[in-house]
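[audit] Reproducing an earlier prediction to check determinism. Same input, same settings, fresh worker. If the tokens differ from the archived copy the diff job will pick it up downstream; this log only records the rerun itself.
[audit] input (755 residues):
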Amino acid sequence: MLLLKNNPMKKIYSIVTLCFLSISISGIAQETEPKTGHTNTNKFKQLKDEFATPNSQHTASGAPGVNYTQQKVDYKMDIILDDANQKLSGDESIVYHNNSTDNLQYLWVQLDQNKRALDSKSPDIKGGGPEILYSPEKFAADFIDKPFDGGFNIIHVKDAKGNDLSYKINQTMMRIELPKPLASGKKFQFQIKWWYNINNHVPQRDRSGYEHFDQDGNNLYVIAQFYPRLAVYNNVEGWQNMQFWGRSEFALEFGDFLVNITTPKDHILNATGVLTNAKKVLTKTQLERLEQAKTSFDKPVIIVSQEEAIEAEKKNSTETKTWSFDAKNVRDFAFASSRKFIWDGMAVDINGKTVMAYSLYPKEGNPLWEEYSTKVVAHTLKEYSSYTFDYPYHKAISVHSKNQGMEYPQICWNYGRPRPDGTYDDRTRDAMIGVITHEVGHNFFPMIVNSDERQWTWMDEGLNSFVETLTEISFDENFNTGNLPKDIIPYMDGDQSNISPIMTQGDNVHQFGPNAYTKPAAGLYLLRETIMGHELFDYAFKTYANRWKFKHPTPEDFFRTMEDASAVDLDWFWRGWFYTTDFNDIGVKSVNQYRVTSKPTQDIIKLAKKYGIPVEQIRPGIYLSTDPETEGEPKTPMDIALLKDYIDTNYENVADAEIPGYFYEITFEKPGGLVMPIIVEYTYEDGSKDSKTYPAQIWSKNDKEVNKVVASKKAIASIQIDPNLETADVNVENNVWPRAEQSEFDKKKEELAKE
């Protein structure tokens, strides 16, 4: 350790270095170049032009402002599930609360089931050739079956007094004309009565519908987007009434729900909200098991057993029963129902509050589901709560449904089915764990942090996939999440004509999965692990989640909050990773080794002659030179009297071994468009290693290449950039010096391509 002496009488020398030389030569070159003007194209330019102007609702800090408002919509519904005819009927009463400062002339209602109407335009906008492989169901659906009539049949729309209201249906949206403008602070009550034919969701992998089991003749229903739902009205979009084409999901208002669902008497059903009439719909034994589950924190309790479900499958009751649910402050409602359901549950301690984790699954899901599903739900609730806020609802349900992966408040549908003999491989198990983690995690994004999925898919899918990644790794440190920076390399290195910036409306993106899920998740992982660090990132991310829970955030609210709460300028990262399709490629262009000398180098002598300075007038100094050693020159820096005199005068406890004896000028190049930190691992001749991360701002003055002078006590044998593939570098061939060392990187690249 070098300790500076407290010596005010320090000797001062004029030390000429190659730094001076490079500045001078650069200045000479600039004099001969033609002068042309340009705008600010620096990658570190602030995002003033791209960001929406902050206001008193969405502030410059990224927080909701003093004038922030959002609407509230309450629903009372009576629903009938006709299992014999696969038909759903509903009669709903809606109370719309206008909390905005605007007077509203009409209301917009979403009719998402109209995507399956006979006159739907959704099939017509899809292009492309035939698929390589068809399942029998998919082939029949595409080429044999008649078009399925699954759209809403609106029986009537009336006001609270029973008067007909005028309305206009435009595909998946319905405009309801108000008798008079709805003033700020007022509410309007009306009713909609409707029905539709329930679709078989399996062939087209629809979000909602039923699966039919030929072996026992039963259906398993996962029902969502099943009722006319109010669109969002806010100060950013006004009415969010973009059509539902089938991909980009939903923007919804929060409200309270009272829902009665009538099903066959032998069905087991669960849904969003509190089951308020459990004593009427469950047997005494089921109630006792349910109460037992509420105190079991270490393992699930079977509430409806497989044996009981198999017995129910044999019957087909013509009697009915009605399930009643009360859901407060949720943005949507969904339910699952079947006589095939096994039901288990366990309690989860969320900072002293008991939350229930449940699973519903047919026997076709066992033994996999009984072993893992509810445990994964419990783990997910704990982990997400630690990164965001305590889970505020009383339960979370995982429902097994073929080919599904879909989320709603407190309930979600998930795939992962063993072979018919009950066996399964690790891939099936991990896929099931992954989808349950992801869909349960959606309770936080966007069911609570309520971003606009129709506009910005990444705000719910990407943020959720990021926390999913952390949750899966904590479940199993070797879990292959598929969301790490190394996983996105093939996508980012792909055909630019088939890649879209993340900041693209969801219906218009190429490669939807990598764009909306993997790349945002990998970017946030990179921010946390490499750029910001856990402490700064986690604090800022939790700040965003808490600021915007039960509210409608925009992308700018997220970007601004992450900077506001961390004091880290990230505009360069948002611009590159989210607003462009640039990729990262950083390499070692060249390495020059220097020695220390007391004699002026040839470069200094040439420069002195250029400016008419006699060589003998060059002051004594310490020089770094690439010239070969000559006889009589010092062998180490401490052999130079000038340096030795200075060290002896100004430092204590100095041994010769502490003075660097090796000096390298390393030129890093950046063929890629993204700016990223330079993560470097130095390996010395004795086999030891050192790592150094140069912040991304190192590229702020030169976007193509930068030089660094590295001094070392030991000779450097090799240099390796991004050894752990942290920055999604698409080209590892230029990451190693000397180039002969790159074979291990080639192996990594090949392994990555196979994955």
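[audit] rerun output stored. Observation attached for the diff report: Residues 3-32+585-754 form one domain.
[audit] end
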